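S., here's the first fold you wanted:
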Amino acid sequence: MAIVDITVIPIGTNSPSVSEYVADIQKILNKYEAEGKIHYQLTPMNTLIEGELPTLLEVVAAIHEAPFHKGINRVATNIRIDDRRDKKSTMSSKLESVNRHL
């Protein structure tokens, strides 16, 4: 299981607020989560998504495209992937590991 940290930035909006675009992306993520393909967490600065890497790459493409469907002509997407293969790693297990040291 891999974890993706992603920020999708629509460029050239009419307002400094991008919450409308973030909401559209969350709708896409909700669909994938309802299908049991991913688990995700929205944060104030990004979105964290966990799942199998091929599925995550499919999700990344889908959410990168979302602002284009609203008429945006340029989108910058920042992606960081944590893909640990020696043991199962989830967002919650990573936090639990840190908390054991506190």
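And the second, which I think is the more interesting of the pair:
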Amino acid sequence: MSKTDNIYANPIGEVESFRFDQQVVEVFPDMIKRSVPGYTTIIDGIGELAQKYVKPETRIYDLGCSLGAATLSIRQAVNDSSCEIIAVDNSEAMIERCQLIQSSYNFEMPVTVQETDINDMVFENASFVVLNFTLQFLPRGQRQELMDKIYQGLIEGGALILSEKLTMGFKEIDENIIDIHHNFKKKNGYSDMEIAQKRAALENVLIPDTRDEHYKRFKSAGFSQYDTWFQHYNFASLIAVK
């Protein structure tokens, strides 16, 4: 059972950069629910989109899988034993918990959970790839190369789902939407101090792009179709189809 996220509830002299460590694993479901507007809708939607794009005898990749919520959604929605989900994360703590969660379900679709740097991945015979709030944690210089590799590993008609926190295209709008998001977190029980300390921890760790920057990467990689299928405040999920 998930614990309440109180990681930043007390004053911290020097806030360290955010890490997906054991402390975060213990509170992660609560943290996501209270911090990311529309997260449950995105997870449900990933399963629904998988029903449209996953093909028999192909692979599905969940990159930066954390506790495997997207993987579970896909397994439940598609559950084709001829397919395989490969769920990867570079956090040992996340992977250990994800393996426990996935093994507690009896779906026909097999899943391989592994601790890996997604930049080292080789994508083959993929019909569906998920980057659910993952790309924003990679250095900007690595993002296009990963997008290119994903495109090359997708079968024709395969899809990439990319969920990200966005920077809005105009400064004033961006600042106002950020304020609204902070109010969202306050309504979910976070204090001003928690919000400020979490923001400091994520500075230079979570680096968001604009929607146009994501679209340019899709186009550069070779995707023929791409659009936004969901957005709540400055949190969005995009789809790109080969």
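Why I say that: The chain has a mean pLDDT of 95. The chain has one domain: 1-242.

Talk tomorrow,
H.
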